[in-house]
Amino acid sequence: MALDRWIALIFVGMCCAYGYAAFFTMDQLLPPFMQRNPVWPSTFPKVLAVAGIIVGLVVVLGLEKQSDEKEPSATDINYRRLQDYNTGQAIGLLVLMVAYALALRPVGFIAATTLFLIVGSFLLGERKFHVMIPVSAVATFIVWYLVQEVLGIFLRPWPFFLA
Questions:
Q1: pLDDT for 23
Q2: Which UniProt keyword terms apply here (predicted)?
Q3: pLDDT at 67
Q4: pTM of the shown model
């Protein structure tokens, strides 16, 4: 089985676990007045789980492939040549995302997000620091302002020792 089908099979498994949680465990603790609502807090997770299972099964069963295509195209993933792809960048971005999630609370939203955007763009090949730093700082401040002031959701902007 090809690499894309293995990945889709893992995706279907994750969607099944997510769907089980959405269908059988999320609605048990709802208060009685919410049980009469047409839309519950688990409605969107249920839709996501079913859609994910359908899309994953389409890939696992090979329904998205055209039957007249015998030779793999240049855009297909060749699992025998994984070393030719930019797996280092992908793994670096995954590690950076985990570090961002762990640093978000102690470092603060503005510093953590600005550093995440700068280091992430550096990992992807951008070397113009005179562009990266102001763009990431302005984008971070705009997102913080919209979430904090417009939506009214508190985001700790600075490190814990400055608050």
A1: 85
A2: Membrane, Transmembrane, Transmembrane helix
A3: 58
A4: 0.57
